[in-house]
Write a structure and sequence with these properties.
The structure is a single chain. The chain is an alpha/beta fold and about 220 residues long. It has eight helices and seven strands, in the order αβαβαβαβαβαααββ. It has two domains: about 70 residues, no CATH class; about 130 residues, 3-Layer(aba) Sandwich (Rossmann fold), CATH 3.40.50. The chain is globular, with a radius of gyration of 17 Å. The two termini are about 25 Å apart.
Length: about 220
């Protein structure tokens, strides 16, 4: 199916496949997808870091899904998995990726717990945008980061998730558009998008995957 073919091209581009190293903390960007918390738990159990940060309040997809901040939902999963509560740092107010980064920096700075390295844990199709946002908005450019996500294929992710394929593809298309547009707005570092990936994006736009696009110069891309 052409939709799946083009969506997988974008999916593969969005995952950065950075080899992981041990860091000061695991930084979890929360969302609707609690499998991200489970991935963070795996990393903690494997000894990649002694601390876990969970960052997230309520976003567009979770404001009616959860009865408390995303970070609190993720914290409960981590505690149920055996992580000591005193090893979890909670940032419960952010509503987007930029706020995840800025609010977490402010929280750590206020408590004197400034770490020098992180593993960022995010949904698979948001690895690249998370990396680009952190690089632009984290005040200390010397901070070392790695990015990872649940180890799922495109087909596994869209078939096993709670949102359904159409919504996931819409969100993924919107995220690729933001990778192109947000550097112009000062939100992310610039990244090159291969022609094959952009052609896949345009093909998905042409068949109606436009629900998560942002307005550009008064119109929708």
């Amino acid at each position: 199916m052409e939709v799946d073919k083009n969506a997988k091209i974008i999916w593969d581009f969005m995952q950065m496949k950075i080899p992981l190293q041990k860091t000061d903390a695991i930084f979890v960007l929360c969302s609707h997808d609690t499998r991200v918390a489970e991935r963070a738990l795996e990393l903690y159990d494997e000894g990649y870091a002694p601390w876990i940060i969970v960052s997230g309040g309520a976003g567009k997809l979770t404001e009616e899904m959860f009865n408390k901040p995303e970070a609190e939902i993720f914290k409960d999963i981590l505690i149920d998995g055996g992580v000591p509560e005193n090893k979890i740092i909670v940032e419960p107010k952010s509503t987007n990726t930029g706020e995840n980064v800025r609010f977490t920096f402010d929280l750590l700075n206020s408590t004197g717990m400034m770490f020098n390295s992180f593993i960022l844990v995010q949904k698979p199709y948001m690895e690249r945008r998370t990396y680009a946002t952190f690089k632009k908005q984290w005040p200390n450019p010397e901070t070392q980061i790695f990015v990872t996500s649940p180890n799922l294929s495109y087909r596994e992710y869209v078939n096993e998730g709670t949102l359904g394929k159409d919504l996931i593809v819409n969100v993924m298309v919107g995220d690729l558009q933001r990778i192109k547009e947000y550097p112009k707005r000062g939100f992310q570092i610039k990244q090159e998008i291969p022609d094959t990936v952009w052609h896949a994006y345009e093909a998905l736009i042409a068949v109606g995957y436009t629900k998560h696009l942002i307005s550009v110069r008064g119109s929708m891309l």
